[in-house]
Amino acid sequence: MVRLSVLVFVTLIPTAFAGEMTVERRLVEDYKAVVATVEPGRLLTARARIGGIIEQLKIKEGQRVDAGAEIALIADQKMQLQVRGLDQRIKSQQAQRDQARSDAERYQELVRRGAGTQTQADQSRTALDVAERVLSALNADRDVLLQQMSEGGVLAPGKGRVITVPVVEGQVVMPGETVATIAVDGMILRLQLPERHARFLRAGAAVTIAGRGETDSNVTQKGVVRIVYPDVQGGRVIADVDVEGLADYFIGERTRVLVPTGQRAAIFIPKSALTVRAGVWFVRLKNGIEVAVQPGETRGSDIEILSGLKAGDVVVTP
């Protein structure tokens, strides 16, 4: 009697706590896993404006800089020599101008006294005017050289992170040569999607990004598609995704991204409705029959059934 009462108690547990659900196909968002690479939002180039030798290099790879900050100093020794030469010419021309002014004043006084001619006075004023104009031209040439020397300071074109510095101190550079490349606008994920799936991808769509590395394989975060480029290259469409927390990633680092690729009909049931024996998954139906099923993708507390069930089946759930 004791054994029989125990059996009756055990058989009452499923009846008291079992539930039922009718299997039906529902439309779910389909996702495709693609590999995306970390890229800078925009890559700006800091270039040399004059030729010369890099005297100071104030940055290194990975450093953050502000817009307009001086990142390098280029000097050209020839310009300094030219400035010295112009300084001497300016002093000489100043002496000639002073002499021309003195002559003009003297001839003007002689004309006033009647001891000189008007022609001599006019010639002296012309000589003074020429001397002043030559002096002005020399000062302008000196200002041009000083401006060129001031352009030896290479400025950061924007606020961001230094990616490459292809020069070293003491190196000779030419005008327009690259001194550094700077990533601005943060980092983005650039992914390539097969063109058959790209038609489902739109700007503003949400995507799921896998965690960084094997240790974060179960960690995911959300991103938003910034732009889908209207250009197919090698059967693939390129898109940029905005994701927070990419500042510490390496340029070119790759990560897995799940992007939406349309909808499909699928059967999902609670994971708790499945049991496994000898490596085979089973589901119990309302009529008491157990059917073998092939589970697929897991989404939250539900799992997709690829085969073994059809629409209209009634599944017993805990």
Please characterize this protein's 3D structure.
With 318 residues, this protein is an alpha+beta fold. It contains four helices and 18 strands. The protein has helices spanning 2-17, 77-113, 118-150, 195-198, and strands at residues 19-22, 25-47, 52-57, 64-65, 70-75, 153-155, 160-164, 172-173, 178-194, 206-210, 220-233, 236-242, 254-270, 274-277, 280-284, 290-299, 302-307, 314-317. Helix 2 packs antiparallel against helix 3 (118-150). The longest helix is centred in the first third of the chain and has 37 residues, at 77-113.
How would the blueprint of this fold be written?
Elements: H1 2-17, E1 19-22, E2 25-47, E3 52-57, E4 64-65, E5 70-75, H2 77-113, H3 118-150, E6 153-155, E7 160-164, E8 172-173, E9 178-194, H4 195-198, E10 206-210, E11 220-233, E12 236-242, E13 254-270, E14 274-277, E15 280-284, E16 290-299, E17 302-307, E18 314-317
Antiparallel strand pairs: 1-18, 2-9, 2-13, 3-5, 3-8, 4-7, 5-6, 7-9, 9-12, 10-11, 10-13, 11-12, 13-17, 14-15, 15-16, 16-17
Helix pairs in contact: 2-3
Number of H- or I-type helical stretches: 4
**Tally of separate domains:** 4
* Estimated share of beta-strand residues: 35-45%
**CATH homologous superfamily title of the largest domain:** Efflux pump adaptor protein, beta barrel domain
Q: What is the topology, as strand order, of the major beta sheet?
A: 2-9-12-11-10-13
Number of strands: 18
CATH architecture name of the largest domain? Beta Barrel
Structural class: alpha+beta
Described by strand count, sense and barrel closure, the largest sheet is:
6 strands, antiparallel, barrel
What is the fold-level CATH name, i.e. the topology of the largest domain?
A: Elongation Factor Tu (Ef-tu), domain 3
CATH class of the largest domain: Mainly Beta
